[in-house]
Every structure is written in structure tokens, then in C-alpha cells.
Amino acid sequence: MVSQVGHRAARAAWLPAQHATSHRAQRVFHEGMADAVEREEASPRDFAYLEDRVRVRSGRPQLYGTQFHDGVGGLEPMPIEDPGLLDERRAAVGLEPFAEYEAFIRKTEGR
């Protein structure tokens, strides 16, 4: 995908999938993007967000800690699989440490 349309257009194609209301459409795009990441034709960082979104919508814990919700104590991350390895997984796909991301999310959301 990147070699055909460039990074900017590839990211633009990812955005509708990330925010799709159809879980089926999101899963189809997820499968295609997984293949593209393996071929280095899509961003592993963008894929991490989609991976978490698909997992959360399926009732599974997220891998990268990108999804938050309003919990009992306020804004909190959705359940995370094996949190001890979270920052290692995040670094592998080019994401900042979780503590930095969480601070950014809280600041952005005004909480």
C-alpha cells in the first residue's frame, strides 16, 4: 500500500477503518492491514491502534493500551493483555511508553 500511494495516503485509508461503526468492515480491513504490515507496506503503529480497537470490540484485552473508556474512577484504559510487557510491545511498533501516552490522553480529554 505505501509503495503504491505513499505514507500519507496509506494513513488516510487507515482512518476510516479505525473509526468504522461496522465491526465486520473493521475486521476485514484488519486482515488486509496485517498482511500489509508484514510486507512493510503499512504502519505497524497505525495497525496497533486498529488491533486494539478490534480486540476491544470482540471482548478481548488490548495489546498496546490505545483504547480508553470512562470507568468508575474516571478515564481509564480498557483491559490490557499481559501489562508487564506493554511498553515492550509498544516500542516494537513505534509507540511511546504507555505512561507518556496515558498522560497525553488525559490532557487531551481534559482529565
Note down, in words, how this protein is organized.
The protein is mostly helical. The protein has one domain. It contains six helices and two strands; from the N terminus they run H-H-H-H-E-E-H-H. It has a two-stranded antiparallel sheet.
Strands in their spatial order, largest beta sheet: 1-2
Main sheet properties: 2 strands, antiparallel
Q: Calculate the terminal CA-CA distance, rounded to whole Å.
A: 37 Å
Would you tell me the structural class of the helices and strands? Answer: mainly alpha
Shape category:
globular
* Low-confidence region ranges: none
Order of helices and strands: HHHHEEHH
Total domains: 1
What is the strand content?
5-15%
How many individual β-strands?
2
List keywords for this structure.
58% helix; 2 strands; 111 residues; 6 helices; two-stranded antiparallel sheet; mainly alpha; globular
Q: Brief overview, please?
A:
By secondary structure, the chain is mainly α.
Topology (elements, then pairings):
Blueprint lengths: L1 H4 L1 H12 L4 H16 L5 H14 L10 E4 L2 E4 L8 H7 L5 H11 L3
Antiparallel strand pairs: 1-2
Helix pairs in contact: 2-4, 3-4
